[in-house]
């Protein structure tokens, strides 16, 4: 075998054992030569010399701006080598790569990290983690949806996905909160009592009610316990991030759940109206809701009475044609049983 053939064989053998280097890998290399707009670098495991552009040398690090031939450094792989182009390296992205590595470690270990909310976007929020931009989907927010009060807040999160090649960082606040809740729930519940009045923060609003943070755990405030008056949605009364006082109405130590009430912080209007009205009395009320079977009329703050279709004056009555929400109407109290939370009204009997 000739010397040339031997050299070619050794090169092929070396290439066959060369490690595949990918974008975002950290590699060791030696500065070989200064070029017009960068440096040539010999990288361990690469088939050819790599290239370090001038704009990928960190200007904030004086050591990096004074590279010399023979210097040994760690580099970030910015672009993989191909048959036609050399590998492209970066020095200024080393810190970025180290941050990605720490995030991957946090994902593997399940550690909680801090993230700063920087803006609200469609479907979630953008956060800053060690100068990297991450995304928390609305479904992974404790609140269930973004709101202005989150901006500039530092929140604890779990890493769901950390892919430096795709520059993709997905985080979860909900998982971090759930873990914290498991750690403190027993101690918090042991210190609470039914009928106790406590302060809490509204952290999530849903169609069926709201969740209020009570000393680190979430209590449920059902929509039926928000107001004595009929409301269409909890957001009609509550706002995310607001602090409210609520009464604890039930503690389930076995299921580790707390039920809360906002409306019971005030007087029960059904008790207040006892003796104020009587059957046969004609009064004024405000139309609050219209249905196919009748009209709900507000006759006292927090008290609704029903005007059935059968008790509306006229024939073949369609309540939707006869009334509008917020109309003031005269009604006759036909049946008055506030202890049962029931009051029946009539308009047709007014004329008798």
Keywords, please?
single chain, OB fold (Dihydrolipoamide Acetyltransferase, E2P), five-stranded antiparallel beta sheet, alpha+beta, 4 domains, 40% strand, 352 residues
Please tell me about this protein's structure.
It is a single chain. The strands form 4 sheets. A 5-stranded antiparallel sheet has the order 3-2-1-4-5, with no helix packed on it. The chain has a 5-stranded antiparallel sheet with strand order 8-7-6-9-10. It contains 6 helices and 20 strands. It has helices at residues 3-16, 62-65, 94-109, 173-190, 269-272, 319-322; strands at residues 26-35, 38-43, 50-53, 72-79, 88-90, 113-121, 124-129, 132-137, 154-163, 168-172, 197-206, 209-214, 217-222, 243-252, 257-261, 282-290, 294-300, 303-308, 328-337, 342-346. It has 4 domains: 3-92, OB fold (Dihydrolipoamide Acetyltransferase, E2P) (Beta Barrel); 107-175, OB fold (Dihydrolipoamide Acetyltransferase, E2P) (Beta Barrel); 191-265, Nucleic acid-binding proteins (OB fold (Dihydrolipoamide Acetyltransferase, E2P), Beta Barrel); 271-351, OB fold (Dihydrolipoamide Acetyltransferase, E2P). It is an alpha+beta fold and 352 residues long. A hairpin with a 2-residue loop joins β7 (124-129) and β8. The longest helix has 18 residues, at 173-190.
């Amino acid at each position: 075998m000739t010397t040339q053939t031997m050299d070619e064989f050794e090169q092929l053998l070396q290439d066959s054992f060369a490690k595949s280097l990918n974008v975002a890998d950290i590699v060791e290399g030696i500065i070989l030569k200064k070029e017009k707009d960068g440096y040539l670098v010999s990288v361990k495991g690469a088939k050819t010399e790599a290239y370090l552009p001038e704009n990928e040398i960190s200007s904030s690090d004086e050591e990096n701006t004074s590279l010399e031939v023979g210097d040994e450094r760690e580099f970030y792989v910015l672009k993989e080598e191909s048959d036609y182009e050399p590998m492209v390296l970066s020095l200024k992205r080393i810190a970025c790569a180290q941050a990605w590595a720490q995030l991957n470690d946090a994902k593997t270990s399940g550690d909680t990290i801090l993230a700063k909310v920087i803006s609200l976007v469609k479907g979630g929020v953008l956060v800053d983690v060690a100068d990297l931009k991450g995304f928390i989907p609305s479904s992974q927010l404790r609140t269930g949806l973004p709101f202005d009060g989150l901006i500039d807040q530092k929140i604890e999160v779990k890493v769901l996905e950390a892919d430096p090649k795709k520059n993709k960082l997905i985080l979860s606040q909900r998982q971090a909160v759930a873990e914290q809740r498991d750690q403190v729930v027993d101690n918090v519940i042991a210190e609470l009592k039914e009928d106790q009045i406590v302060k809490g923060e509204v952290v999530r609003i849903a169609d069926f009610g709201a969740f209020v943070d009570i000393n680190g755990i979430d209590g449920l405030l059902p929509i039926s316990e928000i107001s004595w008056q009929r409301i269409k949605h909890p957001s009609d009364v509550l706002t995310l991030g607001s602090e409210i006082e609520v009464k604890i109405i039930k503690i389930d130590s076995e299921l580790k759940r707390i039920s809360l009430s906002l409306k019971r912080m005030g007087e029960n209007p059904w008790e207040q109206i006892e003796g104020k009205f009587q059957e046969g009395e004609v009064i004024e009320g405000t139309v609050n809701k219209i249905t196919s079977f009748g009209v709900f009329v507000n006759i006292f703050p927090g008290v609704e009475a029903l005007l059935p279709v059968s008790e509306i004056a006229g024939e073949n009555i369609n309540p939707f044609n006869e009334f509008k929400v917020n109309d003031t109407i005269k009604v006759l109290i036909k049946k008055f049983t506030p202890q049962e939370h029931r009051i029946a009204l009539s308009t047709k009997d007014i004329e008798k």
